[in-house]
Records
---
Amino acid sequence: MPKRIMANRDFEHIVDTSDEWIIQRTGIRQRHIAGDDETTASLGEEAARNAIASAGLEPNDIDLIVLATSTPDNTFPATAVDIQNRLGIRHGAAFDMQAVCSGFIYALTTADLYIRGGMAQRALVIGAETFSRLLDWEDRTTCVLFGDGAGAVVVEASEGAGLTSDTGIIAAKLRSDGCHKSKLYVDGGPSTTKTVGHLRMQGREVFRHAVGMITDVIEDSFSVAGISAEDIDWFVPHQANRRIIEASAKKLGIADEKVVVTVDRHGNTSAASVPLALSVAVADGRIKKGDMVLLEAMGGGFTWGAILVRW
Ligand code: UT7
């Protein structure tokens, strides 16, 4: 996480908002905001080093890096290549994936398929964002919602029996529907305005679709795996809004105590939110080896998806 923390009260001097409104509508209490010396690459590098160390590996054991981000350091090259260089890796491949808040789900699914296809042995999957740089700090409907940060995991090839008791990714489902593109977008880009642009969102419209899309894709992942909600030990959802998380868990029949919530501390960190929530629940001992973990995200595009992982 970036060093600087911004509390809800800090917004009361910038826009017409209140701590009470933000907590009641979103569950957010604070978020981290990147300083001048912190970028998507530097945050991503730190998360990557932590993930590699906790896997008991060295950077050179990694032969694939997939970075989920919508806030790259430069339009090109991919920020993943910069992180590869910072880690001192000269072999394998590195690239960015852009699916906004669903980016980590897309990136982890992609890495899983590279490994299953024999293209990689050990993949580093990173979600890293500096959304504060895309925000319109005069728009109270968006600037209070997002934060910066990075999280990462390492996935490696191993033989399984094709059962849900296997370790690793059991099932993944991805969806997108571009008819919703104007509900959550950035109003700039290299081929149009030649600027970076600012994030624009019809929050109520996103909210209206979120719970249905999230629960549909999760039910699809359950049927691919042949499991049901009772088999889930931990639900690690995208952290956009506490109300969306609670409504999704309720609709699926997942008990509150199995839901990992970090939106209060991190705000919405887009592609970083799921790996950050995972890292919190692993560090505090909730997620343990053998647990069935359900990951989910939904965001701009719209894109959405779910992954079932046997930890
Ligand atoms: O990660 C990608 C996915 N993104 C999301 O999941 C976001 C989904 N959307 C949401 O989480 C919610 O829609 C929001 C948190 C963005 C907004 O909550 P809401 O309950 O849908 O509120 P609203 O947009 O219907 O706005 C209610 C009122 C409005 O005032 P009027 O028109 O009723 O007078 C807004 O202008 O709240 C006002 N408002 C604010 N008031 C104080 C909007 N933003 C603020 C604010 N402070 N920051």
Note: The chain has two domains: 4-156, 168-310.
---
Amino acid sequence: MKERLEELRNEALEKVEKAENIKELQDVRVSYLGKKGPITEVLRGMGKLPAEERPVIGQLANDVRESIARAIEDKQTELEKEALEQRLREETIDVTLPGRPNQVGGPHLLTKLIQEIEDLFIGMGFEVAEGPEVETDYYNFEALNLPKGHPARDMQDSFYITEEILMRTHTSPVQARTMEKHEGKGPVKIICPGKVYRRDTDDATHSHQFTQIEGLFVDKNVRMSDLKGVLNTFAKKMFGEDREIRLRPSFFPFTEPSVEMDISCKICRGEGCSVCKGTGWIEILGAGMVHPNVLRMAGFDPDVYNGFAFGMGPERIAMLKYGIDDIRHFYINDVRFLKQFHQA
Ligand code: DAH
């Protein structure tokens, strides 16, 4: 029995030594120290021994058990240490490697420009107003002094949804809507940014969808010089203090008189070059004094109130400000284009 126990000890210790991982070690524990293991079996046969040998064998069996258990424990600590060291080796981070920069997005150039224009006008006491992109013929045209059959309707080719509903062709309908809400009482001082739609073929300067910002100031005693002052402030803040503006007579059905505003060409400073087509001036926006019919239809008494309005295209402004040569760049969303303006 003694020999058997010694044999088991040696066998077990050898297996412990050879174990390559925790799982194998666990198997050794179960097969040698478990209840059904060979040592327990030896002890079970102890009854057959003479009484004086029993304590000796019992003592030895305990010894064998303990030495196997200790060996397993030591081996386990060793294996765990090895495993940890291996993981540390494999997971080492080289903190000296250069990092991989994250791709960070930013607001679209147009969004930023519109916000900048909003801020400029908010600084002059204007509020931001909005209106629907799917508009009625009434607000898009009639309320702006463009009755059905008016030839100036042809200036804006429209996407009609029904006879009376269309995609708005400009942001001017927000004028009429906002004035109505004021129920004949001024002042109304708003700018209205938003998307507009025209049945145009897309090319470098045309897009079937683009953005506009409308402005409207209605109060008692509003004069053309107020319009000029506001537009001059806007132009200088947007394009630079050294730029001049000029107002040219024009026609819009909703304003009388109507003007178009030009700014002096940055490239040639008025001398004439290819950017300004030799004129020294670049057209920026349309404006004028609100037509009495427009005031009247929106519930304002034109004998008491008057006002000015203007409309501009942020795409055109961005193109001039940043030298962008094709309106389609705004909509294609090529990040190589867009990311140039993240810091702008
Ligand atoms: N609605 C005009 C357009 O889309 C722009 C415009 C011109 C708006 C003159 C105005 C204005 O308010 O007074 O072409």
Note: The pocket of 3,4-dihydroxyphenylalanine is lined by residues 170, 172, 214, 252, 255, 286-288, 309-311 (CB under 6 Å).
